[in-house]
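Saturday, quiet lab. Running sequence design on the structure tokens for the scaffold JK sent over.
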């Protein structure tokens, strides 16, 4: 039985894992970089160990160093969170070798899932439809061009090693294809040292719909419903919701059955997500498996009533999944907004620095997973996700209006956030009508709508409120001093 878990991550997901461990009486070990010595996950864990410099390669990606800490702290399991080492099969193998339980799939299964081409081949065998495209890797631009002309432009070039929206490119003709082939190859080589490209039909006005699934070491597989993640920027998710407005009972069960077949086909264990694109004609095409706990897992927790981290721990302990597919009932509607530290008007560029003050929303059906606290810092070294604001309602409308109220309550001083954009989106008729697609922001001119909304708001904002904010930030500035021990001139420390 797992008694002590090292969390090889930071930020809100480290806190999320620590919470469930605490509730189950499991000890937790945090690791942290130079940048994170004041971070919430360090404060909340039973023990915390410094593992290196701010740059991820020098700390959160340093497998040997993390292994050292696991062995010396006597951790019997590791939870990788998402990002960082979570989908690194070498790390999973290193843990296996050292008899440390990796809370996730086996190294071999992860390796299969992580390779978009091998995984697609496994899906074809399991009769799970995939996006039409090249049957295997394409060797060069000429071969890609031949396939593109067969399936018809536009096509998408994908590095099989891509992830998080990187290493993919849409091309519309032979000329763009040749340029795109070179740039995707270059990007992939500079990111992971190798490149292998596949060609896919680019599906227009498509929805991103994915399924949570779980598979135990006894071969039991269940799906835990779908999540619609169509509202994206740069092929990265911003807002997710469940149920999807276009998935009814029949579709849920039919595609869900494919998902279970997919999990069986790759010999998966623990929790994972099968991602699909839903074409405008209603067809579902498998795109990939994310072999880890996903950012948007809380919406599934809301509608299923499950603690998914607890389920991960149970499966890692070798226990059978304690329910059957038919025991799961979907209850209500949930929405998640990823609260990013970014400037919508600077092409979503990260906005980092000290956060002197914050107010975290709460209330019935409101959940906020965040590392923020008054006086914390948003680091430029890591992902821009500061908080996940999640609401539940008996109806979609209740969940939506709770989200709007919570977004209004959320106050984050010091950095730009995606909150204003989300208010505009949630108030739009297109969102209310469930008319979603992965190009939602562009299709409906959401950034222009936001500009109009902000103009209106400025007029309404009282001068007293603005003055109060200025006084507050002056007070904070008087309390902070430059951290002379840090080599980073943007780093501040409370006195
Ligand atoms: P997807 O891979 O389908 O886009 P997610 O949105 O959950 O799913 O994750 C996006 C990608 O970025 C993944 O590769 C994930 O591992 C990584 N990632 C997401 N959020 C973070 C984060 N806060 N820190 C580090 N990596 C992250
Ligand atoms: P990643 O590993 O970066 O998450 P995915 O293959 O999951 O890559 O694709 C990420 C996003 O890119 C999808 O959610 C979707 O918006 C878009 N996308 C991927 N493949 C296609 C395609 N064939 N046609 C249209 N859009 C696609
Ligand atoms: Mg994906």
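Result came back. Writing it out in full:
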């Amino acid at each position: 039985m797992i008694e002590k878990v090292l969390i090889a991550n930071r930020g809100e997901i480290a806190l999320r894992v620590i919470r469930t461990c605490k509730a189950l009486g499991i000890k937790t070990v945090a690791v942290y970089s130079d940048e994170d010595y004041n971070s919430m996950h360090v404060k909340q864990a039973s023990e915390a160990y410094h593992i290196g410099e701010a740059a991820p390669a020098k700390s959160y990606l340093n497998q040997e160093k993390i292994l050292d800490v696991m062995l010396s702290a006597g951790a019997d399991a590791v939870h990788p969170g998402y990002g960082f080492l979570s989908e690194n099969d070498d790390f999973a193998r290193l843990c296996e070798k050292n008899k440390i339980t990796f809370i996730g799939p086996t190294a071999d299964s992860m390796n299969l899932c992580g390779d978009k081409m091998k995984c697609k081949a496994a899906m074809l065998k399991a009769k799970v439809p995939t996006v039409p495209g090249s049957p295997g890797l394409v060797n060069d631009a000429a071969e890609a061009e031949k396939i593109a002309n067969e399936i018809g432009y536009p096509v998408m070039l994908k590095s099989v090693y891509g992830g998080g929206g990187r290493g993919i490119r849409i091309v519309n003709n032979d000329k763009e294809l040749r340029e795109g082939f070179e740039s995707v190859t270059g990007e992939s080589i500079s990111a992971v040292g190798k490149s292998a490209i596949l060609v896919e039909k680019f599906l227009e006005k498509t929805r991103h719909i994915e399924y949570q699934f779980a598979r135990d070491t006894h071969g039991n597989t269940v799906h835990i419903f779908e999540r619609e993640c169509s509202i994206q920027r740069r092929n990265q998710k911003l807002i997710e919701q469940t149920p999807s407005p276009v998935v009814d009972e029949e579709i849920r069960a039919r595609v869900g059955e494919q998902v279970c077949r997919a999990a069986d086909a790759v010999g998966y264990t623990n929790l994972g997500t099968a991602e699909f694109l839903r074409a405008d004609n209603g067809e579902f095409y498998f795109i990939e498996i994310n072999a880890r706990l996903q950012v948007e897992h809380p919406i599934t927790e809301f509608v299923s009533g499950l603690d998914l981290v607890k389920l991960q721990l149970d499966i890692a302990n070798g226990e059978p999944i304690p329910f059957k597919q038919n025991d799961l009932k979907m209850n209500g509607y949930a929405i998640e907004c990823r609260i990013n530290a970014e400037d919508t008007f600077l092409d979503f560029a990260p906005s980092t620095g000290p956060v002197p003050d914050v107010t975290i929303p709460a209330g019935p059906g409101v959940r906020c997973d965040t590392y923020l606290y008054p006086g914390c810092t948003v680091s430029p070294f890591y992902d821009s996700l500061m908080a996940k604001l999640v609401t539940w309602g008996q109806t979609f409308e209740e969940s939506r209006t709770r989200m709007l109220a919570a977004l209004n309550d959320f106050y984050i001083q010091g950095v730009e956030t995606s909150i204003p954009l989300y208010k505009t989106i949630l108030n739009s008729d297109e969102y209310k009508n469930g008319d979603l697609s992965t190009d939602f922001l562009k299709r409906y001119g959401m950034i222009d709508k936001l500009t109009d909304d902000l103009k209106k708001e400025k007029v309404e904002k009282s001068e007293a409120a603005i003055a109060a904010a200025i006084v507050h930030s002056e007070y904070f500035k008087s309390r902070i001093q430059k951290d002379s021990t840090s080599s980073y001139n943007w780093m501040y420390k409370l006195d």
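Notes for JK: The longest strand covers residues 221-233. Residues 131, 156, 162-165, 168, 200-203, 206, 208, 232, 235, 275, 277, 287-288, 438 surround adenosine-5'-diphosphate (ligand 2) (CB under 6 Å). Ask whether to fix the surface positions before the next round.
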